[in-house]
Amino acid sequence: MFTGIVTDVGTVRSVEGDGDVRIAINTSFDTSTIEIGASIACSGVCLTLVDKGENWFSADVSRESLTVTNLQDWTKGSLVNLERAMKLGDELGGHIVTGHVDCVGSVTKFTPIDDSVTLETLVPSSFGRLVAQKASVTLNGVSLTVNSVKDLDQGTSFTINLIPHTQEMTSFRTTKVGDELNVEFDILARYVSRLQEKG
């Protein structure tokens, strides 16, 4: 379980394998304090640490995970938002994040507003029911608040606001129009949607 508060921006060190792959990531985390088998959110995807060294760790990624996330686009040097798993007693500064990506969205627009930036993301229409104004959403592992939502012919579009701190402390500092983002909707929205389907 995670909070969506990014504590390090790592870089991809290597990607090895066909089908299932092993991804190594450079990090400023003290890896001596992280056990093999621990969970780390990597741009919103919960991965299991399988090997480590000083200032790096690696995780195995299945073909399935590659097809439903943006990890398939990662190459050496790609920026990765990192968060270690939450411990009991930790401050819940964002919201409850599982690290299980619902879909991949695409960045359609950036609009500067004073020092902040409004980022617009398009997701498939089938996920539109899971996003609501003022609700929480996780984009590439970052807990954010939805400003507005529009249902369009080509999908559902929503906006979030990136304050300067978020731009500086996450991989959003290099994000551009057309980039794909790992999207996880609020877990409560998932349950409510499922209950409505069964009702």
Write the topology of this structure.
Elements: E1 8-16, E2 21-26, E3 39-42, E4 45-53, E5 56-61, H1 63-68, E6 79-84, E7 103-113, E8 116-123, E9 136-139, E10 142-152, E11 155-162, H2 164-169, E12 180-185, H3 187-198
Antiparallel strand pairs: 1-2, 1-6, 2-5, 3-4, 3-6, 4-5, 7-8, 7-12, 8-11, 9-10, 9-12, 10-11
Tally of individual domains: 2
Strand order of the largest sheet: 1-2-5-4-3-6
Beta strands, count = 12
Shape: globular
Report the end-to-end length measured between terminal Cα atoms. Answer: 29 Å
Query: What is the CATH architecture term of the largest domain?
Result: Beta Barrel
CATH topology of the largest domain: Elongation Factor Tu (Ef-tu), domain 3
> What is the C-alpha radius of gyration, as a whole number of Å?
17 Å
User: Element order, helices and strands?
Assistant: EEEEEHEEEEEEHEH
Uncertain regions spanning at least 5 consecutive residues: none
Content of β-strand: 35-45%
Structure characterization notes:
It is built from three helices and twelve strands; from the N terminus they run βββββαββββββαβα. It has 199 residues and is mainly beta. It has two domains: 77 residues, Elongation Factor Tu (Ef-tu), domain 3 (Beta Barrel), CATH 2.40.30.20; 96 residues, Beta Barrel (Elongation Factor Tu (Ef-tu), domain 3), CATH 2.40.30.20. Strands 1-2-5-4-3-6 form a six-stranded antiparallel barrel. The chain has a six-stranded antiparallel β-barrel with strand order 7-8-11-10-9-12. The chain is globular, with a radius of gyration of 17 Å. The mean pLDDT is 93.
